[in-house]
UniProtKB/TrEMBL annotation:
GO terms for molecular function: ATP binding; ATP hydrolysis activity; transmembrane transporter activity. It comes from Prochlorothrix hollandica PCC 9006 = CALU 1027. This is Macrolide ABC transporter ATP-binding protein. PROSITE patterns: ABC_TRANSPORTER_1 (PS00211), ABC_TRANSPORTER_2 (PS50893). PANTHER family: ABC TRANSPORTER ABCH.1 (PTHR24220:SF86), IMPORT ATP-BINDING PROTEIN (PTHR24220). GO terms for cellular component: membrane protein complex; plasma membrane. Coiled coil: none annotated. Keywords: ATP-binding, Nucleotide-binding, Transport. SUPFAM superfamilies: P-loop containing nucleoside triphosphate hydrolases (SSF52540). Residues 6-239 form the ABC transporter domain. Pfam families: ABC_tran.
Length: 241
């Protein structure tokens, strides 16, 4: 059996005090093993965004234990937590979060600078990551010279360039049209097929159904956790990456 990448045990996150107390997460148990492709779905206020923040080490739980690739991250100080976040998690966001003054290549290089990757190696790895998502001919373009779908591809390349154990995507297609959404989801299929562990947080059923497992949240709790049914012998829809 594959080792757990995400292991949440009795995770709770509360905000406020007294009558204003809100249980954003309420004693959540969740495990995602290496190579799994999971999707977290739920309406606004269901707890899925709070879960993303906790899993991504962007916020700490109020109670419970979280192990990321075997590391008890709740016990780490802020510096150690930032180092684990940079080394073990690749983030993809709805609004891309690319630096407008940097080229596609330099945007992808950025997390490797924080990770102390040698300069010559940065260039090669960033170029390879952009080629992997079909942007080998756009290395010198800045974000305003790219379409929304191309910007999200740059963001995906940036997320995978440090070879993280977990790819965490928060509404990755929320700013894209339907055609571009399918192109981005095809890249996710290819990344999953190569063995990368993926967790997508979304409110779109179409996006969630591309995963192998759909985890539905309501009122800070897991309402259901089901595996999707794939056709026998089916292969991911890809771009030949």
């Amino acid at each position: 059996m594959n080792p757990p990448i995400i292991a949440l045990s009795q995770i709770s996150k509360t905000y406020g005090l007294g009558d204003t107390l809100v249980h954003a997460l309420d004693q959540v148990d969740l495990t995602l093993t290496a190579g799994e492709y999971g999707a977290v779905i739920g309406t606004s206020g269901s707890g899925k965004s709070t879960l993303m923040n906790v899993v991504g080490c962007l916020d700490r739980p109020s109670l419970g234990q979280y192990h990321l690739d075997g590391v008890a991250v709740a016990d780490l100080d802020d510096l150690a937590l930032a180092q684990v976040r940079n080394r073990k998690i690749g983030f993809i966001f709805q609004q891309f979060h690319l630096l407008p003054q940097l080229t596609a290549l330099d945007n992808v290089i950025l997390p490797m600078i924080y990770g102390n990757v040698p300069k010559l190696e940065r260039q090669a790895r960033a170029k390879a990551a952009l080629e992997r998502v079909g942007l080998g001919n756009r290395l010198g373009n800045r974000p305003n010279q790219l379409s929304g779908g191309q910007q999200q591809r740059v963001a995906i390349a940036r997320a995978i360039v440090n070879e993280p154990v977990l790819l965490l995507a928060d509404e990755p297609t929320g700013a894209l049209d339907s055609h571009t959404t399918q192109e981005v989801l095809a890249i996710f299929d290819e990344l999953h097929h190569s063995g990368i562990t993926i967790l997508v947080v979304t409110h779109e059923t179409e996006v969630a159904q591309r995963a192998d497992r759909i985890i539905t949240f309501r009122d800070g709790k897991i309402l259901s956790d089901v595996f999707t049914v794939k056709e026998a012998g089916a292969v991911p829809h890809g771009l030949g990456l």
